[in-house]
Amino acid sequence: MFNPKLSPKFSQSSESGYTLLESIMAMVVVSILMVGISPVLGFAFATRVQARRIELASRAANSYISAVRADPTNTNLVRLNPSDPNAGPTATGSLNCGAGQACTTPANLFCVDNDGTGRCETNSPTDMMVQGIGINECSNNLEEGYQLIVRVYRADAFAQSGPLEGANDDGSSNVASSRVGLGSPRDSLVQVRTEISPSSNNVFTSLRDRLAGCSSDDAED
Length: 221
What we know:
- By secondary structure, the protein is an alpha+beta fold.
- Helix content is 29%, strand content 15%.
- It has three helices and seven strands, in the order αβββββββαα.
- Strands 1, 3, 4, 5 and 7 form a five-stranded mixed beta sheet that branches.
């Protein structure tokens, strides 16, 4: 005869686990959150990388300006009075540049080697190429002094042939720092303008004439 008192008693635990449906719903919620914040994380990373590049470009510009001030009449460093001072350099798909030296390919560029290889390379994410343009409406002689326009580009922007971006039509800066995220690799990272004093003793006269649009004697020449 069955005795109910002898039957084992089973009690349901108060700490039950997640069901399969609950686990799936949790995974869906986490996935939606990750999709929502991933663009923000990506933008923050791109902005940080771009800020680092602009920092390196600013150092490259300062290094180049120091080199020009040490040798202001070096035509390999400075291209005086080009037909279009707003035009950027033209990439040829390769670079032939030693660290801290003027490039032979493309010409009229200056190499700033940031990765320690001894030269600028198109596959380097940190090497910088500097374009220097001198403007003196009163003279075609570097010894007379000039306004120096400095644009700094990424070395890897020269991996593909073609013109790189320069300044806007009005001469204002057209740099990647004004773009969101990483910007276009073919834009200049930094553009700087400074004055290079003439080699002669007539520093004030030369600067005055250039700011005034040249003296009458220079205009006649």
